[in-house]
Amino acid sequence: MHKLKYKKLWLSIGYLMIIFVIYSSLTPSPVEMNIEGSDKLMHMIGYFGLLGWFVQIYQQKKVQLILAAVFICMGVALEFLQELGGVRYFELSDMLANTTGVLIAWLLVFTPFPKLLLWFENAVINALATNK
Predict the structure, then answer these.
(1) Is 99:72 a contact under the CB 8 Å cutoff?
(2) Contact 47, 105 (CB under 8 A)
(3) H/E segment holding residue 8
(4) Which of 25, 101, 114, 116 could disulfide-link to 48, CB 3.0 to 4.6 Å?
(5) Which comes out higher in pLDDT, residue 36 or 113?
């Protein structure tokens, strides 16, 4: 199994993604798109992005499954925290959208998708370094 050369960078980006999702979930005035149904789509994309990012960094299937469970639990917990905060609303449909995003990303674990970041390092970053 090949190792990522810039793992610390990719992890830092991933942690920033988690912080953004948490902030967006708990802030009283999140960024909104004025497209009907976009709220649930944004939930799906956000949680797809989280798991999709981290399965590229952690290649072991057991770790990927744990990450999927963690992100599903995070989505559920954030909904409860929204309700407790009193400025946002608890929505089961948001939990479902979050979980759907995670599950779609999980399905891609069984494809070449988890090697995309490794390919990016080898093809793009190495090509840029060679052209200097």
Answers:
(1) yes
(2) yes
(3) helix 7-26
(4) 101
(5) 113
Residue 122 DSSP label: I
78 neighbors 89 (Cβ within 8 angstroms): no
Q: Which residues contact 42 (CB under 8 A, 6 or more apart)?
A: 33
User: What tokens were used for 101?
Assistant: 């995003």
Residue 32 included in any domain: no
Instruction: Give me the count of residues in the chain.
Output: 132
Angle between helix 38-57 and 92-107 (nearest 10): 40
Q: Two tokens at 130?
A: 């060679």
111 is a domain residue: yes
- Whether residue 33 lies inside any domain: the answer is no
- Total domains in the chain come to 1
User: Residue 131's pLDDT is what?
Assistant: 67
